[in-house]
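ok here's the first one, seq then struct tokens
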Amino acid sequence: MARFSFKKALAQLPRGGPLGLELLAAHGITAKHASALLRSGWLQRLGRGAYSLPGDELNRDACLAFLAQQLPGLHVAAKTALAWRGVRHNLAFRETVVLWGDRPARLPAWFSERFSARYRVAHIFEPAMPVGLGLAPLPTGRPDLMVSTPERALLELLSETGSFEGLEEVRHLVESTRNLREPVLDELLGHLNRIKVARLAARLATELELPWANLALRHSRRLGGGRRWVAVGRTGERLDLVATP
């Protein structure tokens, strides 16, 4: 019976991505059937609650969309989001996909073995910010995979400066953000709660004479936070950000 149900559903199952128990159940394959199909070789186990069809080559974005169903708030963020939206400086030999989410988690081994990625939780916006602000699928991408818009990705990138990204690389990327949508950036900055990000945005935008410099300056003053903000990140760079007068 299990084999018959699976054969009937085989042509309808999506290729290139993990198969979760809910998806299998929607095609008439219960958890008990899945166990039998594993033993008979009709399914392969990727990890807990994740299966694939034998010989199926997993697609990165399909896998990311699957993970987004498991990890609240997961989205493509920061430097990767900028690159995917056309803002890049240096091309990496092997791209490490930057992922952000709402809760601490470890990417499953089946994903990390196939794709280079890192996952981070960084609450740089206040909890009251509308869910999904600054997130959208790529115009030609999967509708179920959220990618930060350039405005949000910029602030995420600034948050990673000194920790994961060097200041020189960040400066080059920020210099390419002359066409940001100022109303969107204004709304995101209005929910920002990180002094470092606000001051760095104001400093770089002013130095590079970007169109949104005054906007960044206003929000840097709003957050305040004392005369000086100093930190030494994981990259060894010292960030010394003076308060905006």
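and now the second one, same deal
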Amino acid sequence: MPSPEVTILLPNYKTPEITKICLRLLRKHTDTSRIHVIAIDNDSGDESLEYLRSLSWIELIERPKRDDETPSLSHSHALDEAMERVTTPYVLSMHTDTFVRRDDWLDFLIDKIKSDKNLAGVGSWKLEVKPWVKRLLKRIEYKWQSFYFPLVGKGYGKLEGKGDNFLYLRSHCALYRTDLIRKYDLKFSQGNDTAGKVMHKMLVEHGHDMLFIPSEELIHYMVHLNHATMFLNEEFNIRQYNRNKGISRMRRIFNKLKTQELLQDDHLDK
């Protein structure tokens, strides 16, 4: 049997339903001889942990709760702990609320990173496709702010993609060359920034390119629920309006992907 090409790092925290959907879709749409899945549970203590323990086709790391960690650091530290076990040429960070939807999703990503030897990583900034009217209005607002903020002495403020708010491959879908992470001794959790931000910057500073796949293209291969863990757990102080809106969006995606059928298909766990 050939060795796996890609190790998938999958942090988990208290999302029983979407964790099951995520892993069953991975199993359904992937030749599992090509991947090594490492799930890292951040002290969930719930049904999602019990589910992960029941799966023989993945590797599970159970991390104890650490009082000095924010949720963001807990996530990035989980990725780093799993990264120590990676032996494959490529490593892919994913979220439990990232759902693959086609059998060729892995080939799509690997073909992208193999297309240029100088590419260190490929993936996504935000995996969302808004209606064209909203995109147009957002673009107009962005252009105006890019002109106005420097004019009044605010620099670029907090404009997305400017200054310290540079775009980077987000951990919901980011495929890297393992040897480069090792070569430069990089970590997902460098500093207190979100997972992968500093690593992205340092790979670029070392002369490598990073490829952002347009959402309009990537959405054909996978969907990202975005902040599902926060919406589904009341311990995160999310405004009720935003929580309801997020859960409604999740349910629409569930219906589109026919997840109820998937949740009843236990053979995908074997």
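notes on #2: The chain is about 40% helix and 15% strand. Strands lie at 6-12, 35-42, 59-63, 90-94, 98-100, 119-123, 173-177, 209-212, 222-224.
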